[in-house]
Amino acid sequence: MEPIEFLAQTPPFDLLDGERIRLVERSLEIAYVPRGEMILRRTDPQNDRLFLIRKGAVRLERDRRLVQMLEEGDLFGYPSLLSGTSPTVDVVAEEDSLLYRVPKTTFDRLMEVKPFGEYFLAELAGRIRATINGDQVALTGSLSTQTGSLVTRPAIFVRPDTPIVEAARVMTRERISSILVESEPLGILTDRDLRSRVIAEHGDAQAPVTTVMSQPVATVHARASLFEALVIMLENKIHHLPVRDDDGRISGVITDTDLLRHQLKSPLHMLQVLDRLADPAEFRNYADEMGAMVDVLFQGNLDVLEIGRIVASLNDAAAKRILRFVEQKLGPPPCPYAWIVFGSEGRMEQALLTDQDNALVHADEGEDATRYFSQLATEVVAGLEKLGIPRCPGGFMATRWSMPVSTWKRQFSNWIETPDSTALIEAANFFDFRRVHGSLDLGELDEIILAAGRHRLFLGRMAKNATEFSPPLGLFRRIREQESGVDLKKGGIIPIVAIGRMYALELGILGRGTVERLAEASASAGGLSTDGAEVLRESFRFLLHLRLREQLRARREGDRIDNSVKLDALASIERRHLKDAFVAIAEFQDSMALRYGTNFIS
Amino acid sequence: MFFFRSKPWQEIEYWALDLETSGLDSRRDQILSVGMVPLRGGVIHWGDHYYSLVRPEAWDGLTGDAVRVHHILPEELRDAPLLTAVLLEIDMRLSGGASLVLHHAEFDLGFLRKAYTRLGRAWPRPSVVDTQVLVSRYEERQQRLSPYALPVRKSLSELVQLFNLAPYTSHHALGDALATAELFLALRARLELTSFRQVRTG
Q1: B177 at the A interface (CB within 8 A)?
Q2: What is the CA radius of gyration of chain B?
Q3: Is B54 within the bounds of a domain?
Q4: Of A29, A162, A395, A541, which is least packed with CB atoms within 10 Å of its CB?
C-alpha cells in the first residue's frame, strides 16, 4: 500500500479530499526510529510536526511512567502542534517504528478543512455525550475553564443594511470566519453562510446582510465553562459562539477550533489510557490523575454534582475494563451476572476517591458459578485496589457479597421483613445499588425495593436510623464544632441522602441520585413540597461543594483528606449558609420523625 | 597521522532508486520504469519522489515473464517519455553529489551505466549504498550472535517483512524504491552505523 493510500484510509486524513491528501503527500516525511529512541521530549520548546505511526508502536510517558501506548494508525504530536507549546508527554519508540511526519505548515492548512479540525472536536464531543449519558468519561480538566478566557479580540459588527459583499470584505480584511450583525435580535454571518447561501445559490452580493445571516444567535456567558460552551455548540450544531458579558454585551466570538486548541493543552484522556493498557489495573497513577482532574473541574466552577457523575462514570469505566480483563483471563462466565456498586458510587455522588462498594449477582446457583465468581470478585477487587480505590473497611465488597440472584432476593426481602439493626445498615447500603457491568437483569431486585413502601415497620425503622446522624447544632442553633472541625458528612450529607432514600422507598422511586429522588418526591402526590425539595437540594449541593473544596485543598497541601471543615476557615457568609443548611436538615429530620412516629419505635 | 573524518551518514543526500526492466540482461533488455525517493537529514522526503514509465525503443520482447513480474503492459508505455527525458530527470537528481541507495546495486547500476553511455552522457559515478550488502553484514553479525539461526532471506519483500516495514506495492519501481529507502534506514539503525564511510558500500 502506497503512503497516500494508507493516509487516505486513516482518520482523520480519510476526511480530506483528493487535493488535500496530495498536499499531505507532497510534504510527507518518513522517519525510522529504533526502539528506545526518544521522539518528542517534554523539555522541547515546541514541536512542529504531526506524527502518524505507520509501523511499530510508541509509548507516551510522563516522568517515565506510561501514560498511553500508541500503535499503527495512531497520531501523536498534535496537542503541542496546536497549542504551540512544549509536548505534553515524552514519546519513546516502544518498537522499531516507521513514522509518517506532516510538517506544521501543511497541518495548519489541513486545519482549515472543517471536518478535519472537527475530527478532534468530535472525538471529544463523543466522550462528553457519553458522560452526559452516564456511560463513560474522559473529560479533561481544561474544559472547565471560563469561556471568556478564550476571547482574544473584540467582536466585529456590521450594520444590518451593509451589503453582503462589504461584510465579506470586512471578514477578509480582519481575517475572521464570522461577523456579527447589529440587528435586533443579534445576527451572525459566517464563511459557511457565504458559501451556501450566497455563492451556491447565486445570491445577490449587493443585498443587505440581513437576507443571508442567521438569527437569533445562541450566545454563552463569559463565565460559563468551556464545557457549557461546547454543549451549546453541539446542540445547536454551530461553530461560532458569541460570548456575552454581565451587561449582555458581546465581548467576542469563540469558534470550535478555539475550544479544540484549548482542550488539547491538557490531554489527560484517562479513559483512553484505561483502554490502551493490556491490564487496566496497571494504571498506577489513576487515583492521582483522578484527583488532579477533579481539582481542575472544580477550579473551573463545574457543578459539584456534575463532578460526582463524572467521577462515578470514570470509576465505572475502570471497573468495566478490569472485569473484562479478568473475564478474558478466567474464560467466559458460566452464566449471566451483574457487577453492582452502591453507596455514594451507586448514587453517583462521589468526589475524590472513596472506598470500594461493590457486589456481584449471578444467575445460577451451582458450585461452578460460585467458584468462578468468587475468583472473579477476588481479582477485580484486587485490581481496583491496585488502581488506588481502597477496600471497604466494612467489607461491603464483591469478595464477600457474591451470591446467586435467588439468594439476593431472599436477602432483600429479609432486610425488609426482619429489619434489625444490621439489616437496616445493609438495606441502606444495598438499596442504592446500580448495575455497572454484566447482562443479568436485576428487575426482580428493583421490584422488592419498590414494594418496601408497604412495610410500615421497615419504613419506620429506616426513618429512625436515618436520624441517627444529625446536624451538629447546639443551644440557640449554633453550630457545634469538634476539635477536628465540623463533620459535613455525618452532620449534613448523610442525613440528606437518608431523607432522599426514605422518600424513594415510600413513594416507589427507582432513581438513585439524591437530587433525582428529591425532585421525583416533590413531583408525586403525598411527597415533598417543591420548596422543601429545593432547600434540601441546595443544602446538599452546598455541603458537597464545601467538602470537596476542603478535600482538594488538603490534597494539594498534602494534608489528610477527611469530611471535616474548620469554621474559621469559612467566610462569614459560608458560615451562615452552613447554619441555614443544618437548620433546614434538622427540621426535615423532625418532620420525618413525626411522620413515621419514630419516637414510638424501639 | 592524518585521519580523514567521514561525515555523519545523515548529512549526505541519498536517492533510493529502483528500475523495472523488460528482462535481466542489461545488454539486451530495456528500462521500463524508474522510481526514486530522496533521503535528507536521515529522513525520507516522500513528497519529492520521482516516478516515470519509460517508452521502450524496441517493442519486441515486452511480453512474457517480465510482464508477469512488474505488470507493466505495452499499451501503458506508448505515451510514456523516452529514456533520454527520463535520464535527464535521474541525472538532475544525482548530479549534485547525491548517493544512490539500491537493492542489488549491480543490477540497477548495469542498466543505468548502459543508458548513460548509449545517450552519450557521462556517468556521474555516485557513491552507492547497496542494501543487499548491508543485509549480508547484518546476517554475518546475526550468525556470530546466534550461529544456528536460519540465514536471513534476501528478496526485498521478505526483508520488508523481516524488519517489520511498510508493505508497499512490490515490483513497482516506486514502491520498491521506497521499500529500499526504508530498509536502508532499518539496517543503518540495526548495524549502528554512524558515518557515511560506514554506510557506503561502493
Answers
A1: no
A2: 17
A3: yes
A4: A395
